[in-house]
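Checklist before submission:
- one chain only
- standard amino acids only
- sequence pasted in full

Submission:
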Amino acid sequence: MTFSIDTLNRTYCQLVAERALSVLPSIGNWIGQQVNVFLRHDAQYVFAIHHHPQIGMANVVQLHNARFTVDAGGRLQTLQKAGPLPNKASVHAFVSGQLADVSDDISSLDSSMWWPVVYRPDTCSHFMTSEQSADAPEMWRAVLRADRVLMIPGPIKVWCQRPALIQCDRAEPLISGGVR
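Returned file contents:
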């Protein structure tokens, strides 16, 4: 489903203001459906799950056949502190895919099976992942898709399996000295 970032931001702001974001168990009905997941900009729950026209929230989200998206216009708004959210950012970076699981229970992660994924709008226009461990990333590369994505609370919130990578324009690491 195609949607505009402006519409997503308007809907999100409206639902937050009305305190009308959906929660479990009702969003459990979305399993198997295409969704867009983004980081929430407040302290209640970690992730927002967009299933048009609704938006829900949860602490743990798992997607299959995921695609990583960064909207250039929304990123620019965020960098210029001109976005519609209370922190002057804009929802502009999200992961789309088939919702496989959603929960509020924080699970432990065996990081040997997953690649860490980070997004920092001030350093790169893509989500980035590293073949190295999260504690010692030597080279981060842009990630476009992954077979599976797990989103959990913590210093690194997004993890993936079997990512499709692209080379960045820069040869040097975008992040050095670890990410924790």
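Reviewer check: Residues 170-180 have pLDDT under 50 and may be disordered.
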